[in-house]
């Protein structure tokens, strides 16, 4: 039996009454969704697209792809300190494959439910596999975490263990080899990133600037520095190194840490006086954070390794240059 456009939408992307979060005044299935933020709040909105061959391998498990498609979008809300409300899904599919759709929608909606984020609409077309998601969240009016608030003297922090997703990607590419256990662990990080939504919420009013790390730590830090009109000094030995990472040669460890990307950790700054509040926020969110540098008035990036200057040989990912 062939699956038509409307069967496909109602079977995989509409929830039966009483199932899934209900956040919108008018949800999926009408011409438009209608959604209202809580009083005193603004809507935070972000879009990310995943293209087969660019952002994921054609062999990836569809449930994991569903998870990751929403995770990268929730990560943007996390970086703004926004609470997820809902999302739309623009799905372009080469064919209506029920088994694939079943897995994809399961992974997608499980993460949506975990974050109380309702699928409020979308669009479905035929074409090369592409997943476009627009996510909406709410922030207290004037309270979004932005990229422009870093000031000289503020401390630089990162959550989790950056670099692991890139380890898996390089193992897939065959440029390095990992033990079976390390491959499994890093592959989970690459295919199933955990958006740091709870941390973003806990950092409201504490962090001065924030961004999520998708294109590499140094590249994404560059966005904060430019927007804030400041520079930074980094102590690379203070960056957290996962067990998998420490089993790689030292030079490659730095490559993964500084230019890896795809980890969806939060990179943020906070005044030195807020040090204890940052640690409390991280504990509340159940995520480890590490301070690894500070903001300077002098523009540019100064990299240090055990106090010794390190030349910056890393560039961040750019779709039109890669
Ligand atoms: P319209 O022609 O009004 O744009 P569509 O026929 O594209 O409507 O979609 C019908 C309904 O199904 C709309 O409410 C739309 O939001 C929803 N929808 C379509 N595709 C998806 C999808 N991939 N995921 C979730 N909802 C979808
Ligand atoms: Mg439409």
Automatic annotation (TrEMBL):
<keyword id="KW-0479">Metal-binding</keyword>
<dbReference type="GO" id="GO:0005524">
    <property type="term" value="F:ATP binding"/>
</dbReference>
<feature type="domain" description="PurM-like C-terminal">
    <location>
        <begin position="151"/>
        <end position="303"/>
    </location>
</feature>
<feature type="binding site">
    <location>
        <position position="215"/>
    </location>
    <ligand>
        <name>Mg(2+) 5</name>
    </ligand>
</feature>
<dbReference type="Pfam" id="PF00586">
    <property type="entry name" value="AIRS"/>
</dbReference>
<dbReference type="InterPro" id="IPR010918">
    <property type="entry name" value="PurM-like_C_dom"/>
</dbReference>
<feature type="binding site">
    <location>
        <begin position="122"/>
        <end position="123"/>
    </location>
    <ligand>
        <name>ATP</name>
    </ligand>
</feature>
<feature type="binding site">
    <location>
        <position position="48"/>
    </location>
    <ligand>
        <name>Mg(2+) 2</name>
    </ligand>
</feature>
<keyword id="KW-0067">ATP-binding</keyword>
<protein>
    <recommendedName>
        <fullName>Thiamine-monophosphate kinase</fullName>
        <ecNumber>2.7.4.16</ecNumber>
    </recommendedName>
</protein>
<dbReference type="InterPro" id="IPR036921">
    <property type="entry name" value="PurM-like_N_sf"/>
</dbReference>
<dbReference type="GO" id="GO:0009229">
    <property type="term" value="P:thiamine diphosphate biosynthetic process"/>
</dbReference>
<feature type="binding site">
    <location>
        <position position="48"/>
    </location>
    <ligand>
        <name>Mg(2+) 1</name>
    </ligand>
</feature>
<keyword id="KW-0808">Transferase</keyword>
<feature type="binding site">
    <location>
        <position position="31"/>
    </location>
    <ligand>
        <name>Mg(2+) 4</name>
    </ligand>
</feature>
<keyword id="KW-0784">Thiamine biosynthesis</keyword>
<feature type="binding site">
    <location>
        <position position="147"/>
    </location>
    <ligand>
        <name>ATP</name>
    </ligand>
</feature>
<feature type="binding site">
    <location>
        <position position="76"/>
    </location>
    <ligand>
        <name>Mg(2+) 2</name>
    </ligand>
</feature>
<feature type="binding site">
    <location>
        <position position="76"/>
    </location>
    <ligand>
        <name>Mg(2+) 3</name>
    </ligand>
</feature>
<feature type="binding site">
    <location>
        <position position="262"/>
    </location>
    <ligand>
        <name>substrate</name>
    </ligand>
</feature>
<feature type="binding site">
    <location>
        <position position="47"/>
    </location>
    <ligand>
        <name>Mg(2+) 1</name>
    </ligand>
</feature>
<dbReference type="InterPro" id="IPR036676">
    <property type="entry name" value="PurM-like_C_sf"/>
</dbReference>
<feature type="binding site">
    <location>
        <position position="46"/>
    </location>
    <ligand>
        <name>Mg(2+) 4</name>
    </ligand>
</feature>
<feature type="binding site">
    <location>
        <position position="317"/>
    </location>
    <ligand>
        <name>substrate</name>
    </ligand>
</feature>
<feature type="binding site">
    <location>
        <position position="31"/>
    </location>
    <ligand>
        <name>Mg(2+) 3</name>
    </ligand>
</feature>
<dbReference type="GO" id="GO:0000287">
    <property type="term" value="F:magnesium ion binding"/>
</dbReference>
<feature type="binding site">
    <location>
        <position position="55"/>
    </location>
    <ligand>
        <name>substrate</name>
    </ligand>
</feature>
<comment type="similarity">
    <text>Belongs to the thiamine-monophosphate kinase family.</text>
</comment>
<dbReference type="GO" id="GO:0009228">
    <property type="term" value="P:thiamine biosynthetic process"/>
</dbReference>
<dbReference type="Pfam" id="PF02769">
    <property type="entry name" value="AIRS_C"/>
</dbReference>
<feature type="domain" description="PurM-like N-terminal">
    <location>
        <begin position="29"/>
        <end position="139"/>
    </location>
</feature>
<feature type="binding site">
    <location>
        <position position="76"/>
    </location>
    <ligand>
        <name>Mg(2+) 4</name>
    </ligand>
</feature>
<keyword id="KW-0460">Magnesium</keyword>
<dbReference type="InterPro" id="IPR016188">
    <property type="entry name" value="PurM-like_N"/>
</dbReference>
<comment type="pathway">
    <text>Cofactor biosynthesis; thiamine diphosphate biosynthesis; thiamine diphosphate from thiamine phosphate: step 1/1.</text>
</comment>
<feature type="binding site">
    <location>
        <position position="212"/>
    </location>
    <ligand>
        <name>Mg(2+) 3</name>
    </ligand>
</feature>
<keyword id="KW-0547">Nucleotide-binding</keyword>
<feature type="binding site">
    <location>
        <position position="214"/>
    </location>
    <ligand>
        <name>ATP</name>
    </ligand>
</feature>
<dbReference type="InterPro" id="IPR006283">
    <property type="entry name" value="ThiL-like"/>
</dbReference>
<comment type="function">
    <text>Catalyzes the ATP-dependent phosphorylation of thiamine-monophosphate (TMP) to form thiamine-pyrophosphate (TPP), the active form of vitamin B1.</text>
</comment>
<dbReference type="GO" id="GO:0009030">
    <property type="term" value="F:thiamine-phosphate kinase activity"/>
</dbReference>
<feature type="binding site">
    <location>
        <position position="123"/>
    </location>
    <ligand>
        <name>Mg(2+) 1</name>
    </ligand>
</feature>
């Amino acid at each position: 039996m062939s699956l038509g456009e409307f069967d496909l939408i109602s079977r995989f992307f509409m929830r039966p009454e009483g199932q899934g979060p209900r956040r919108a005044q008018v949800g999926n299935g009408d011409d438009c969704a209608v959604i209202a933020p809580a009083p005193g709040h603004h809507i935070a909105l972000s879009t990310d697209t995943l293209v087969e061959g660019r952002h994921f391998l054609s062999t990836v498990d569809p449930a994991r792809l569903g998870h990751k498609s929403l995770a990268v979008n929730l990560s943007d809300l996390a970086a703004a300190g926004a609470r997820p409300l809902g999302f739309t899904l623009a799905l372009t599919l080469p064919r209506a494959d029920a088994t694939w759709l079943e897995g994809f929608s399961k992974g997608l909606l499980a993460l949506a439910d975990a974050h109380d984020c309702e699928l409020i609409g979308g669009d479905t077309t035929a074409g090369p596999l592409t997943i476009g998601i627009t996510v909406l969240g709410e922030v207290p009016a004037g309270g979004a975490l932005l990229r422009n608030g870093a000031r000289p003297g503020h401390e630089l922090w990162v959550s989790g263990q950056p670099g692991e997703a890139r380890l898996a990607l390089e193992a897939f590419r065959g440029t390095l080899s990992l033990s079976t256990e390390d491959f499994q662990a890093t592959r989970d990080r690459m295919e199933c990133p955990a958006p740091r939504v709870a941390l973003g919420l806990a950092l409201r009013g504490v962090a001065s600037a924030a961004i999520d790390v998708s294109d590499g730590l140094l590249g994404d830090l560059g966005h904060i520095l430019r927007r804030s009109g400041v520079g930074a000094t980094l102590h690379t030995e203070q960056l957290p190194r996962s067990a998998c990472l420490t089993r790689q040669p030292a030079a490659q460890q730095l490559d993964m840490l500084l230019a890896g990307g795809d980890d969806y950790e939060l990179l943020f700054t906070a005044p030195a006086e807020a040090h204890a509040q940052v640690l409390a926020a991280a504990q509340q969110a159940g995520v480890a954070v590490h301070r690894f540098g500070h903001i300077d008035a002098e523009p540019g990036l100064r990299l240090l390794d055990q106090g010794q200057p390190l030349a910056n040989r890393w560039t961040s990912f750019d779709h039109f240059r890669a």
